[in-house]
Amino acid sequence: MAMTVVPLAADPTTGPSRSVRDVVPDELWDKQVGLLMRDYPYDSVMATRVLGQGYVYLLTAMRHRGESLGLAPSRLVDIGVHTIILDTVAYSALCDKHNGGHFLHHVPEVGMKNDGSVLRTAQIVAADGWDVDLPLWADAADCGPCHPGNDSH
């Protein structure tokens, strides 16, 4: 499986793109990759990709808290997000550190939306300096089942 990563070009002001591996402790990363491999038909490469995009989505959502941007992950990225938030102790610590102590709630909707919010979210993730693994965001035509217009996922 070929992986297409869309890196942000290095900017003299902001520098090269950021790595989620600088944010997540190795032990937690390895555990969550293992959980993805346990629960989905992923090898370590795919699990790493999905988890990484889940983290960059959440960190972007936290950075833009209160902006009502209507951020939404793709279905694949959402799998990574769920793996992260289900480990509530680690997720709470992530919110404390990167969201000013505010818990980023998960408020799923039943209906899926097709309003371009997933690809707009990927653009915001990239603009924030994270690498975007574009194939993981490509299922955007029928995604984004999260509560729009508030500070939740």
Structural class: mainly alpha
Envelope shape: globular
The low-confidence runs, each spanning 5 or more residues with pLDDT under 50, are 1-14
- Provide a count of the helices: 5
What does this structure look like?
This protein is mainly α. It has one domain (23-142). Helices cover 44% and strands 0% of the residues. The protein is built from 5 helices and no strands. It has helices at residues 26-39, 44-63, 75-86, 88-98, 117-127. The longest helix is centred in the middle third of the chain and has 20 residues, at 44-63.
Q: Secondary structure elements and their pairing?
A:
Elements (H helix, E strand, L loop, with lengths): L25 H14 L4 H20 L11 H12 L1 H11 L18 H11 L26
Helix pairs in contact: 1-2, 2-3
Features:
153 residues; mainly alpha; 5 helices; disordered N terminus
